[in-house]
Design goal:
Blueprint: E1 2-5, H1 20-28, E2 32-36, H2 47-51, E3 56-58, H3 61-67, E4 70-72, E5 90-93, H4 101-109, E6 113-116, H5 131-148, E7 170-174, H6 178-189, E8 193-198, H7 201-211, E9 215-219, H8 222-231, E10 234-237, H9 252-257, E11 263-266, E12 287-290, E13 293-296, H10 306-327, H11 329-335, H12 337-342, E14 343-346, E15 349-350, H13 353-359, H14 366-371
Parallel strand pairs: 1-2, 1-4, 2-3, 4-5, 5-6, 7-8, 7-10, 8-9, 10-11, 11-13
Antiparallel strand pairs: 6-14, 12-13, 14-15
Length: about 375
């Protein structure tokens, strides 16, 4: 199979979908690999690292798009890339289609075989290709939140850990998945007071066993959310419905209850955000203020640390990409149910139930779409 990777064009996105080590594996399996010039440069992988392995370096992204059967990316195709889409191409990347109706329409109209990292799901409900970016985003959320609590950025001027004789910052984390757990770990490590909310008591018991008395665990309810927001200095939104739209846990009236200069980092923004006041931002212009609360809603947070992020991402995605290349998508999806759940679109049909419900469109199970 002809496998390709292009340079990401999203704002301040420096990750790359294929490392030299990954390219080596594809070539060892008998596949051809094509790379856009300087695609890996932002992550610290110069073209020569690929070329010496036998990768063909092409000058223009369009050349790569027009050549390959399987395109491996990091972020969703932008509007400028829609013209490169063609029927039957396999596109393996993050899509987050519940919050992107225009992109979904383009994928369906061009009859793309779209495989989404974020909806590949193991039997135990874990999301193996989303987990590494969730871990990074969770850890970054505290780092970024701490920065924007500083007065020069408009924050309340609070140090997370405080110093002896001063109060620590109150950090509230909504959601106890991979993002929330990693945010909790870093917030506690920086010395903050931490409360974490989740609907599953079993999950809260797990966190209590890990962190003990250092963290306050609470069942996620309207009353508990309202109570903790009033005293919060930093709030992390880390709610996820795989493939679906994120529920709005923070209402606009909640902002008026919060402290002036408090910071809200919405890591859920890729799926629409978990606050009514959330809207996507970029690394160039990461924040805005509503009702005195600083909102940080960057849609590609891990792109700020591309070297770490690229290696972590490709560690998780490579085995699925190799399986697709070796067996073809249809056979690979038949043998691997986790991978099958990642197929969001197939030749003009929407094949992910959660995405269909979120976008109010018709859904066709993947097996039926393939046989059709």
């Amino acid at each position: 199979m002809k496998v390709g990777c292009v340079r990401e064009i999203k704002n301040n996105e420096f990750r790359v979908g294929l490392t030299p080590d990954g390219a080596r594996d594809f070539i060892a399996h008998g596949h051809e690999v094509f790379l856009e010039k300087n695609a890996g440069f932002g992550s610290g992988f110069p073209d020569e690292d690929y070329r010496v392995l036998g990768v063909t370096i092409l000058d223009q992204a369009e050349e790569v798009w027009n050549t390959v059967d399987l395109m491996i990316k990091v972020k969703e195709p932008l509007k400028e890339e829609y013209t490169f889409l063609r029927e039957g191409m396999i596109l393996f990347t993050y899509f987050h289609l519940a919050a992107a109706p225009d992109q979904l329409r383009a994928l369906l109209n061009h009859k793309i075989k779209a495989v989404a990292y974020e909806t590949i799901e193991d039997e135990d409900g874990s999301l193996p290709c989303l987990a590494p970016m969730s871990q990074i985003a969770g850890r970054l959320s505290i780092q970024e939140g701490a920065k924007y609590l500083e007065k020069p950025f408009g924050g309340a001027g609070i140090l997370l850990a405080g110093v002896p004789g001063t109060p620590k910052a109150n950090v509230v984390i909504l959601g106890a998945g991979a993002v929330g757990t990693n945010a909790c770990k870093i917030a506690l490590g920086m010395g903050a007071n931490v409360s974490i909310l989740n609907r599953s008591v079993k999950k809260l018991e797990y966190l209590d066993n890990i962190f003990g008395a250092h963290v306050q665990t609470l069942v996620s309810s309207d009353s508990n959310i309202e109570r903790v927001l009033k005293n919060a200095d930093l709030v992390i939104g880390s709610v996820l419905v795989p493939g679906g739209s994120t529920p709005k846990l923070i209402r606009r009236h909640h902002l008026k209850m919060m402290k002036n200069g408090a910071v809200f980092v919405d890591v859920s923004i890729d799926q629409g955000g978990c606050a009514e006041s959330s809207r996507p931002t970029t690394h160039d212009d990461p924040i805005y203020i509503e009702e005195g609360v600083i909102h940080y809603c960057v849609t590609n947070m891990p792109g700020a640390v591309p070297r770490t992020s690229t290696i972590a991402l490709t560690n998780a995605t490579l085995k699925y990409a190799l399986k697709i290349a070796d067996m073809g998508l249809e056979k690979a999806a038949e043998e691997d149910m986790a991978l099958a759940k990642g197929v969001n679109c197939y030749l003009g049909e929407l094949t992910n139930k959660n995405v269909a419900e979120a976008t109010h469109q018709e859904y066709l199970p993947l097996k039926q779409a393939i046989h059709a």
